Amino acid sequence: MSYYFAIVGTQDNPLFEHEFGTSKQGGDGVARFREEARHMNQFIVHSSLDIVDEVQWNGGQMYLKHIDRFHNNYIFCFITAGSVKFLLLHNPDTHTPPNASSRSSAATARTSAYGQSASTTYNPTAPAVEEAIKNFFVEVYDVWVKTIMNPFFKLDMKVTSPVFRGRVAAAARKHL
């Protein structure tokens, strides 16, 4: 599974971006987005901001859960108290598994419209998935608050700190 995490400021400007892969179930933590689709990640995340604007005032929660889907990409959102948006694009199946050659050609031919095989289904609203993503967002939010408390940090300023990037990556390894 591959992830693209973005922090979007109050003026809808990107403040931070990070790509990573899953570290659970034997994952190596490397994002495996297809090269022809990699440049679309920022566009997909940015296009989901319209949906965030619609639903952010409905319930009053910070974690908005699964808000959008584009082909095989699922977008989750967390809104901070200062209206900064954490967006996570999650692509559950980006490459054919290594043992795909052992499957029959009929099984390989049966794929859904989103590129997943018929035998594997992914549910972004499953409690385990939502809990892991929520825990990731909460941990990143804690690091975010500590970062913006710096007196040299200004509102809507890009985050370039390698310490911040390392802590986001550690949260991703821990929860995703």
TrEMBL record:
<dbReference type="GO" id="GO:0006888">
    <property type="term" value="P:endoplasmic reticulum to Golgi vesicle-mediated transport"/>
</dbReference>
<protein>
    <submittedName>
        <fullName>Trafficking protein-like protein particle complex subunit 2</fullName>
    </submittedName>
</protein>
<dbReference type="Pfam" id="PF04628">
    <property type="entry name" value="Sedlin_N"/>
</dbReference>
<dbReference type="InterPro" id="IPR011012">
    <property type="entry name" value="Longin-like_dom_sf"/>
</dbReference>
<dbReference type="GO" id="GO:0005737">
    <property type="term" value="C:cytoplasm"/>
</dbReference>
<dbReference type="InterPro" id="IPR006722">
    <property type="entry name" value="Sedlin"/>
</dbReference>
